[in-house]
Design a protein that fits this description.
The chain is α/β, with parallel strands linked by helices and 244 residues long. The chain has eight helices and seven strands. The chain has one domain: 3-Layer(aba) Sandwich (Rossmann fold). 35% of the residues lie in helices and 20% in strands. It has a seven-stranded mixed beta sheet with strand order 3-2-1-4-5-7-6, sandwiched between helices. Helix 1 runs parallel beside helix 3 and helix 2 runs parallel beside helix 8. It is globular and about 50 Å long. The structure holds S-adenosylmethionine. The site of S-adenosylmethionine has 21 residues, from loops.
Amino acid sequence: MEADEYRRMAAAEESHWWYRNTRVLLRQLVEPLLSHDVGALQLDAAGGTGATGAWLSEHATTVLADYEPLALEITRETHPRYLPIRADLNSLPFSAGAFSAIVCVTALYHRMNPDPGAVVAGFARLTRPGGIVVLMEPGGKRLWRGHDEVTHGARRFSLDEMRTMAIDAGLEVVVATGAYSFLVPPAFVMGRLERTSDKSDVDRNQSGLGGLFGRLAAIERRLIRRRPLPFGLSVIVVARKPAA
Ligand SMILES: C[S@@+](CC[C@H](N)C(=O)[O-])C[C@H]1O[C@@H](n2cnc3c(N)ncnc32)[C@H](O)[C@@H]1O
């Protein structure tokens, strides 16, 4: 990502509606599945500045692995409970079964990851039996926008692709759902209008149209509690490694 994007992400972490609501949604889906064992170790894989995953360290020691030194530097200042480590998702330097949970939010889409399925297989290997792997990525293959360029994206994912990557890695899918489904129509229109620009979403519309997006996201979370959504501007898979 561009260096400015990290400063923007860190600054927007508390103020931007998307970060606030994504943390609440991830907590809803993931917290009931986290291990309470003493010695549990978690990984925020490609955690950036910890904007969506810092809450993980309230539950257990959490490693934040990212390739970008600037992201790690900002994380050390803003989230001292993390253990930040410079590492590449394509060759993570940890032993098999090291983690009780691995969470990876908006990273597999990145140009640095030519084979996202291989990265997920790596996550499965590093997860202990009974542990969980959580993936959240940009959804809607036709929704490519200027924001994807700024964040050095290579692809968006369908929910089926996400589910298949988890299953192919030997994981059992617990939940596979779309999120931010109400943003699909506006994102489609913006994608058409923005074909030649490369504007970041992080600076844009921090309040989410004066709180409207936050209210819609809260309604959507209640729906997701009852049943998963078939599509969304984001797609999420929560999967478990079968117990040995
Ligand atoms: C859009 S940011 C998301 C950061 C964080 N997960 C969040 O939700 O705020 C994408 C991050 O993935 C990291 N990343 C992408 N591919 C990576 C790789 N192969 N190894 C390590 N980090 C990677 C980038 O450096 C960047 O910090």
